[in-house]
Structure formats: C-alpha cells, structure tokens
Amino acid sequence: MARALVELREVAKVFMRGASLFSRSASEEVRAVNGVSLDIFPGETLGLVGESGCGKTTLGRMVLRLVEPTSGSIRFSGRDVLTASGSELRRLRRDMQIVFQDPFASLNPRMRVFDIVREPWLIHRGNDAVENGTGSQLEKATRLLKTVGLDETALSRYPHEFSGGQRQRIGIARALALRPRFLVLDEPVSALDVSVGAQIVNLLARLQREFGLTYLFISHSMPIVRYLSTRIAVMRKGEIVELGDAERITVSPQHEYTKTLLAATPEVSFAR
C-alpha cells in the first residue's frame, strides 16, 4: 500500500474566547478541532463533510500552516510541516495549494487576471516549478486559463468583470500555477448556483485525472462529496465521527450524524 501523502496525528486547535465589554464571563477555550488523525493518499480525494462550524476549514488550513495547530503533528510526503521554516516551508507550500470558498473575496480586485495567475511565480522565483516551464509567463498563463476553461482575453481583465463561476476558475488556475501535488478545496462551490457548481466539480475531477492531483475536498454537501471523493471523513464538533470508502459511507452509514447529513441534503446531478 502506498504511503500517505498527508499524515495528520492527533491534530487539535484551541481558540480562546475572551470576555468583552458586554460580557462578564471569563475567557474560555473553544476546541475547534479536537485530536483529528487522518491519512490522505496520493491521487485520491478525501472528502471532509460536516455542518458549518464543525472545524472543517480550520483543519484544512492547518494542513497548509495557514492556521497553527495547538497540538499534534502534520507530515507531507514524509516531511514535518509544523517544524518547517524559511526556504523549507516555501518548498512545501509550492506543493500544497488552496482554492478558497468565496470567489468574490479571494481575488484582488485591483489586479488583472494575468497578475493574479502569475503572482505565485513571482513569489517563488527561482524554484524549479517556475524555471522549468516552457514559454514566457504570458504563454504559461494563457495555457493555464485554457486548462480551466477560459480564453486568453481574460488575462487583461479585472475580477469584477467575471461571474462567480469564472472567478472560481481563475482561483483554480492560480492554485495550479506552481504545479502542486496537493490541493485543499475549501467549499469551492458553496457560493455558486447549482448548475455552475456542477461545472466546477466536473472541472476539478478532470484536472485531478490530468495532473495526478490529490485533494482534500471540504464541503457541507454530502451529494457533492459523494460524487468526487474516494473516501469520506464525517466531522462533527471538531472530531471525525466516521471515516471510510465513499460508497460505504453513503450507502451504509454507521453513525447517526452521517445518516442525518444524508437525509438532509437533496440529490445533485453531475453529468460529465
């Protein structure tokens, strides 16, 4: 069996909620993530599903060190993510990218699409992922946009000139710029209508096949997770309450919370 690409062991995140001018209560601990252990294997999609506020996004961002864990360990391709710093952390982040939930807030409104897509190349200048590509940055940006279903005329335009689905395609292109091996997809279709969201899900499935990507797909929608995922982890109140193959989880769930999620979400069609 292949070694896991991403390994989480007893990962936890505690936030302190303090007293305010309008409350006399003392500060208290809020355990957003409580001792989660997960493996994500090369080429698979691990769907992380649960209701809003259960800790899904916090967990995904801790994998990338966008949020620092309170305790636990995280390894990527055998390397310790939490002790990495400087150039080592930059190399890790080249291999691990994120597509954010909100396509309206995740793109700088003052930057043209060309500058948005090439920004990772400027930040990681000198890395093999940038230098080994063929063609100019303009040519590479054009190819990236075509890969996600946009044409080169988009390069000179600003984010406000695009629909939500098109903006999310731009965000995906930016995430792919450094040729990462692993993507955290943080509810990438929740801000989109159903038909556009289905197009984005199908795009992500195609990109995974073409580039051999590994996904952590975060969502509150069980039908979307079921369609895209190899395995599913069900999260409730900061803990994983059920984990298994996507078919088993959706056909024969064991935990009452998983059954509730399945019963509460309508069917969604994803014609390829």
Overview of this structure, please?
The protein has helices at 56-63, 86-95, 113-123, 128-131, 137-147, 164-176, 194-211, 222-228, 246-251, 256-264, and strands at residues 6-17, 28-40, 45-49, 71-76, 79-80, 96-99, 182-186, 214-219, 231-236, 239-245. The strands form two sheets. It has a six-stranded mixed beta sheet, with helices on both faces. The chain is α/β, with parallel strands linked by helices and 272 residues long. The longest helix is centred in the C-terminal third of the chain and has 18 residues, at 194-211. It has ten helices and ten strands. α3 packs across α5 and α3 (113-123) packs parallel to α6 (164-176). A hairpin with a 2-residue loop joins β9 (231-236) and β10 (239-245). The chain starts with 5 loop residues before the first strand and ends in an 8-residue tail after the last helix. It is globular, with a radius of gyration of 19 Å.
Record the SSE blueprint.
Elements: E1 6-17, E2 28-40, E3 45-49, H1 56-63, E4 71-76, E5 79-80, H2 86-95, E6 96-99, H3 113-123, H4 128-131, H5 137-147, H6 164-176, E7 182-186, H7 194-211, E8 214-219, H8 222-228, E9 231-236, E10 239-245, H9 246-251, H10 256-264
Parallel strand pairs: 3-8, 3-9, 6-7, 7-8
Antiparallel strand pairs: 1-2, 1-4, 4-5, 9-10
Helix pairs in contact: 3-5, 3-6, 5-6
